[in-house]
Each structure stands twice: as structure tokens, then as C-alpha cells.
Please model this.
Amino acid sequence: MLKLWKAAASHEDSFIERYERLLAWSLKLTGHDRQLAEDLLHDTFVQFTLSRPDLNSIHDLDSYLFAMLRNSHLSHVRRVPYVRTDHLSMAEFDSVEIGLRATDVRDQIKVQDELRLICHYALLRKETSKAGSVLILRFFHGYYPSEIAQLLISNLQAVRKWLQLARNEAKLYLDSPTALTFMRESHSEVKPQIGFARTTEELLNDLRRMIFSSRQGECSSRKQLQEIYRPAGSSTVDGQHLAHVVSCRGCLDHVNEILGLPLLKDRYPTDMTGKETTPKGGTGGGPTGASGGGDGEGGIRRSLRRVKETFEHHPKELLIAVNGYVQVSQKVSSDRMEQTLSLAIEERIGFVEIFSEQWVRLFFLNIDPPPDGAFEQSARIALSEGRSLEAALDFSGPCPNLQVIYNDPTLIGEGATVSIIEEDTRPTILSEDKADTSIAVRGPFKQTVGQLWRSLHDWSFWLKPSTVTALVAVFLIGAVLFFGVRRGQPPTASVAMLLSESAAAERAMAGRSDQVLHRTISLEEKSSAGALIARRKLEVWQSAERGMTARRLYDERGSLVAGDWRKTGGVQTIYHHGSRPQVQSVSGPIADLSFDNAWQLSPSAEEFTSLIGRSEAQLGETATSYVITYGRAAHDSRALIPQLIKATLVLSRADLRAVEETLSIRQGDEQREYRFVETSYERRPPSAVAPVVFEPDPELLSSSQPEIRNPKLETVNSATTPQPLAPSVATPELEVEAWRLLNQAGADTGEQITVARTSEGQLKIDGLVDTETRKGELLRALWPIAKQSAVRINILTVA
Model:
């Protein structure tokens, strides 16, 4: 591990020279909480050695490192509430080390139970598949994927597939223990006791004993192990041999010595987490040792491991924080991810951080704003396998702009399938609704084919009872598959399942009050001949806490041209330049789709389902997405009602989120196509979103009062049919009619509703109600008189 940084050790040496002094400062910052002080010191060491700032440009290195330490402590304090509301399953963490650092195991029985069950799954699975052994190596023993590839005599891509399979199975086992066939068949295995909590050290010792007591078979001699791992060897390691090695302390260390890897004692979970019981407020005179408190060498050794861990870590999501507050999060879905933020924050910017979804801090940058610092400040870190992460903060504009770029070349060919022949005795079997068909297994292909070819030429092979049984089974399975295909199960069931699951995920994400969703969508409008009519951009902000969705439409030049504000209670306000705001009641997605309101849609499974109804749709698949297509023959082109002719929805395989949608609409004798493509998807904490985001922009507002209109379809063209002018002064009859409509809606039961004439002779209806739902009911009740210019309606909610 030390060899990785030997080429440029000046940063390590500079930090180690100040280790005791930095630890003393850290203890003072944390109120002598030794565990937290050590964690802050490790994180500071990681970022200092990964970013490797120019030491010649730092005038006072002590002050520089103290600022990093102080900012790390501030970040920890501010992100603790956010971490607690964003708990992952333990199976989703890279290792026990990372999972325990992100979770307080001593107070969470659920987390400890998950660890025991994951260990139980892995111990059973290792006897039938390499997936279990690989998970034990990575999750419990702390091996990195590159090291596991050496133990398997394989490659990184195969290791990632094994880990993906194991994590999928482990999560499924946690949710439904009987869903995995091989787990159901293991009747003799006793599940571990759950429902109680122990100290972290006791828990990890129990897990380690479970692993080492599961060893089966005889140990290989050192000579046999050297033969297996000889440099000229090319065949992969046998699954049964691997299952023994991962659960045998002696064999595993023999292999470590042969391959030149760190020994097991240098990667124990208790040593890596630093979670031993150390009295808070203990003496902090010197650095801690390898087991929680002793010599400085142990603390430095843990810091070096933390560097390696961060260097190897592959994030699935990036969380960008400024001054300890998370500003935005974005999924890593391509080989290059670029994000630009405009930072409208009141306090002085002191530092920028980037975390993964597992709260591994990948990036840290101290900021010294102008005039003391430069107008542009940036840093870049290199990660394993050619990956990199860089950030630049520019102060030259009215608001500081932060640009983050993450490059991951390993994602370029991730869709390819790793195809192997499983040498294990039993196949990977999941329940039918959870099977992961994208993962196969690989092994010594040539050797297996050779043995099969020799067996086929031996007549005794065909006379064996097992062979006859297998042939009969193959025949029966083939017959079932053949007649099943002949009968032809329609794809609508799969389409309905995907749309239902995607819509449920949308509702769950939109219902979280601890976040604000922000989507940027590209919108192209084309004619039936394919000619581009307009290219626009949509910005959609959605907050469950406010009960509001704000949608803004921009033209090609970036000018705001329209807006759509919707409240959870079902009230929608449409804004256009030069027009009065239109207020209407909505109960769901747009029912009467047309050229005028198509921009009010977004890629959404729920909206797509509402548009196509119960009509049949076809399902297609790519390596990264599901494609659902709906189409119907056009009706009479003279019809006044617009028709949806064709619709396509693209769902991401990773999380079933709708990322693209295409709609073909016929209106009269003209047909247009609207293509929505999601270009950005963010989750931000409410504190990081300015309230003005959910307020209509000044350029969309006019001096006119909002117009409340009937949402039902108006088949008469108001542009060609003259309409009588409504009176501008309220009559006594109009006042009586207003009270009658309010009484019908139950507004005379104690609610604060007033109807009065203004000095200009208008009828003003004011109200204060408890909920948005009640507000919508009253607005719908007043629709018959709301169009008249003599009526002014202002109903508010208490909240």
C-alpha cells in the first residue's frame, strides 16, 4: 500500500511530521472525542495526499492543515442530520469499514441485524458460487477489487460482476429471506440470532468467528498454493478452493504472502473503523495506535489505508457540498459527468467537498475568496483506473459558479455482459421476479469443453441414469418453452409492471419532504416531415415540503416565455407573457393534450400511463434502458379534439426513472412531434434551495388579476366567436349568486369567508381555509362567476 505513494512522499512526510500536533488540535476541536478526532485527522490526511497541493505555494503549512482540519469538523457537524435521513442498506456499502463509519452501529439494532444476515448469506453462497467468496473478501475482509482479481486469477470486470450479483442477492435476502432458491434449500443451516445490539468490537469479532468457523475441506500446502498462483498460471481458481481460502486464516495469509498483498492482521475491520470503545475525554497526548490508542505508527497506518480506500472507491452518486451543506446530488450514469452550480449563499465560502452516496469524501478544497484569494480556484485528484475528479470555483460573475467534472472511463463499456461458465456445483437461482439475467459466470472454458467432448464419445456416458434423467428433463423443459412461446404471452403485462414500479418510485421520491427535486429537460418540437419547429428548455422544481411544483419554459435564446405552478391540492396557475394568469383545478396529468399545453409534461411513467390509458403498448430493451412504445391509427383529421397518435417512453434500467419521452399529436390536419430528454436530475436539501424558486418570475406577471377558467374542453374557438363583455361593476344579483355558490360548497360553517364590495364597485371574495384541498373546492364552486371582471377572488391557506 505504501508503494502506491512512494514516488512522491513529500506530502506524506510533511503531514507525518506534524501528526502529534494535528491530533492535539483535532482533540481540542472535538472536545476530546478521540474517535471523532482520529476520523477528522484521517480524512484530512486523505485529501491532502490525494489533492497534493503545491507545497511551495503554501506560505504556512501548519495554518493550511489546521484550516483543513477545522473545516472538516464544521462539515461533520453540519452533515450529520443529512446522513441520518439518507441511510443505505448495509449491503450497498463497499465494506463493513465504510458502512460502520457512516452508521452508528451501537444505537442501531437494524444495522447489526443486517450485517449478521449478510454474513449468513455469504457463508452459504460461497459453497455454491464465487459470488459469496468475493463478497466476503470485499465486504468483511476489506480486500479491494484489484486485489480480489489477483486471488481469483481473473480481471476487474469479472470481479465487479461477481460483486454486483452478490449485492443484489444479499439485498433480496434481507427483504425476502425465502426468495433465493439456494437459501430455501439450506434447511440444515441455522440463521444467526438477531434483534439485539452489541459493541462494535464484539459484533465484528462475532462476524469474524462466523466466517472462520465455516471452513470446509483440507488446507492446501504452501507448495500447492504456489503452484496455483505461479506467474505462468492462466486458469482461474476453483470455486471450492476459493470458498476454503476466504474462511481459513492460515491459507488466506499464505496467498497474501505469495501475491505480495497485505496480511489479514493489517486489514481487520476493528482496526480499519477505529470503533473500539475509547473513553471520551481521554488523554490526547499522542497519536493513536493500531487498535484504538497507542503509538503514532498505528494511526498513520490507518490513514494510509483510508487513502487507498478513497483511491479505489467507485461512487454511484455524487453529493456536492459547500461549507458543509449539501447543495446537489447527481447519479453517475456515464463516463463523464459535468455539473455547474450558481452558489447564492449568504455566508462566506470557505471550502468545497464532494461525497459519494456512501459518504466517502472524495474531494476537498479550501477556498479563500477574493480579494484575498484568486478569482478562480480549482483542484483535481486522480483516482484508480484512470478516473479523475475536479472542481473549479469562479468568482468573476454576480454569483460564484462551481463546476464539477467526474471522469470514469470504466463506464464506457459497462453494458457488455461478462460471460463465464460456472464451475460451481449449483447454479445462481433467484426468485422469478428478481432474477438478474444480465449476470452470467465465467471459468476455464477450454478445459470444460474438452471434458464434455470426451464424454460425448464414450457410450457408457449415455447409459448412465443421470444422463438419461438430464435428457428427459431437457426434453420436457424444451416442450414447455416451445408451447409457451406458441401460445404467445402478450408483452402488456411486462409493460404494466414496469410502468407501475416506475410510477411508484416517482411518487415515493416526490413525497420526500427532506429534499427538493430539480430536473432540466430538453424539448424539441418538430413537424410531421421532421422539420424542427422549436427547441426549448424546461426547468422543473418539485418540493413535497412546500406542496409545490414550479415549471419554467425557456426559448432557444434562454428567455423565459411561460410558467406552470401547481399545488398539491390540485390548483394550477399558467403564466404567459402578455396574458392574464390562468388558474384552474387539476386532478392529475393533462387530459386534453394539444400543441398549446404539451410543454406542461415531463418524462414520467405516471403521466405516460394517464395518456395511453389501458391501450396496449410494446416493450423493447437496450443495454441501459427499457423502451415502451404506444401507437394507434389516426382518426378523422377534421376532428376538433387533438389526438395522441404515438408515444414512446424510455426508462433507465438502473432505477426505472423516466429519462426520455416522445409524443406525436394530431390536431386538425396537422401533426407534430414533441421529444423530451432529461439532461439533468438533482436532489437538493430544502435549505439549499432559495424560496424564490417557487415564486412566479416578475417577467411572467402582469397587473391583471388571475383568471380562473373552467378546465373542461371548450370546442368553440374563442378567437373566431364573439363573446359578450362581462360587466365591470358587480350587481346585487351577482353578490347573491356568490353567496349561493359558497353556501353550496359549505362555506357557511365557520370558515373565514367574506364577500364585500370595493370602492370601485367590484365584488371581492376573501377566504382563509385550512388546507389546499379545501381551497380547491371553493375555487371550483366559484367557477360560474369567476370569469367576470367584476369579481376578485383571494382565498389563502393558513399554512
